[in-house]
Backbone:
């Protein structure tokens, strides 16, 4: 069992798509689409990433994820909530 944060855990290995494992001692944090604040968090993270010099591919992936979250939240307003 591996804790992801104070609320979640996983029973499987976590790795990047290329197969590179994320070390067991590296802290992880999970955001869910139902988190009302997530779009703003991701937009701020994108701005920080841009300012830090992240490659355009990373910024494009963030744009895609932001759009997905906003669409899901719009289509599922009954599931969206403030963090608790």
Residues:
């Amino acid at each position: 069992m591996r804790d992801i944060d104070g609320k979640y855990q996983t029973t499987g290995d976590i790795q990047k798509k290329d197969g590179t494992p994320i070390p067991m001692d590296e802290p992880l944090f999970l955001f869910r689409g139902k988190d009302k604040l997530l779009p703003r968090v991701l937009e701020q993270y994108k701005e920080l990433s841009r300012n830090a010099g992240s490659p355009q591919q990373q910024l494009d992936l963030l744009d895609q994820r932001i759009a997905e979250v906003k669409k899901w939240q719009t289509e599922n307003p009954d599931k969206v909530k403030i963090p608790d």
Notes: The radius of gyration is 15 Å.
